[in-house]
């Protein structure tokens, strides 16, 4: 496989091939995921919960994201997957200048794209970064860094008004230059509308139905090692495969052939 580029990922989407993404936090799993054929890896701030034991992503620091980005980037040496890293809570909210400094730290650690959460005020940050050569992935719907403001981990955009706001935010972010956009925990119809409104945008769904350009899952969730109640959109690929390598390959195959996510079992409807 050739190393993925923004160009190759956009071309993949343009020809109708699904884009696969999985979270990775260390060199070993990054290497395994790359060998299994993942198109993109995300150093997610979900590591705050899965690796550090916090009950939200809010405590994760930029230094910690830099450390894990370095680990994953080393694991990907000689590999192909495109590397996205999360800007953690508090590292981009103050000003475009703060966002740029934080993005630079992640890029210098090996990220090829940075991800930031939210709509509206974030368009300014996205344009500032994109103009300065930083590819940006937006993130709308359930944005875990805002869990306290949102009143918990709940489905977003269920009624017509909030769905319209989501669509407007997505359009603004795409216009600001976001090349990719995670759509988390929203009715399938809303995610489909966002994709239809912005045909060139590489939307990556998680609990957002089958009509996005690609899919992402959290590594520990799809391997079945996350403790506690899992959201319904998760599928345990380890239960089907005989090994971690096999589970990763099955995930890639299921996203590519459209059998994951299931349009009913793994999805949400508008109210
Ligand atoms: O941190 C993370 O794992 C994420 C994905 C769920 C998209 O942001
Ligand atoms: Na995240």
Automatic annotation (TrEMBL):
Q: Name one GO biological process term.
A: methylation
| Note on how the cofactor is bound | Binds 1 Mg(2+) ion per subunit.
Q: Where does Mg(2+) bind?
A: 45, 86, 117
Q: Which cofactor does it need?
A: Mg(2+)
Pfam family membership, one: Pantoate_transf
Gene3D superfamilies linked to this entry: Phosphoenolpyruvate-binding domains
Identify one Gene Ontology CC term for this UniProt entry.
cytoplasm
Q: Which HAMAP family match?
A: PanB (MF_00156)
Family membership noted in the UniProt record: Belongs to the PanB family.
Q: How does it assemble?
A: Homodecamer; pentamer of dimers.
Q: What is this protein called?
A: 3-methyl-2-oxobutanoate hydroxymethyltransferase
What gene name is listed for this protein? panB
């Amino acid at each position: 496989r050739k190393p993925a580029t923004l160009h190759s990922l956009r071309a993949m989407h343009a020809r109708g091939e699904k884009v696969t993404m999985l979270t990775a936090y260390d060199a070993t799993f990054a290497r395994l995921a790359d060998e299994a054929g993942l198109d993109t890896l995300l150093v997610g701030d979900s590591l705050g919960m899965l690796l550090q034991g916090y009950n939200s992503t809010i405590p994760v620091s930029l230094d910690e994201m830099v450390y894990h980005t370095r680990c994953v980037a080393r694991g990907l040496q000689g590999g192909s997957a495109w590397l996205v890293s999360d800007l953690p809570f508090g590292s981009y909210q103050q000003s475009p200048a703060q966002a740029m400094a934080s993005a630079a730290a992640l890029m210098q650690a090996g990220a090829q794209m940075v991800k930031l959460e939210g709509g509206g005020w974030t368009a300014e940050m996205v344009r500032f970064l994109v103009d300065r050569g930083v590819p940006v992935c937006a993130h709308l719907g359930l944005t875990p860094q805002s869990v306290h403001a949102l009143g918990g981990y709940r489905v977003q955009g269920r009624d017509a008004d909030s769905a319209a706001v989501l669509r407007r935010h997505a359009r603004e972010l795409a216009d600001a230059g976001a090349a990719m956009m995670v759509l988390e925990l929203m009715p399938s119809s809303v995610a489909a509308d966002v994709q239809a409104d912005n045909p060139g945008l590489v939307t990556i769904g998680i609990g957002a139905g089958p009509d996005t350009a690609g899919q992402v899952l959290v590594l520990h969730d799809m391997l079945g090692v996350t403790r506690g109640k899992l959201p319904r959109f998760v599928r345990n690929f380890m239960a089907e495969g005989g090994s971690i390598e096999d589970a990763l390959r099955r995930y890639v195959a299921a996203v590519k052939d459209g059998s994951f996510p299931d349009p009913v079992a793994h999805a949400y409807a508008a109210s």
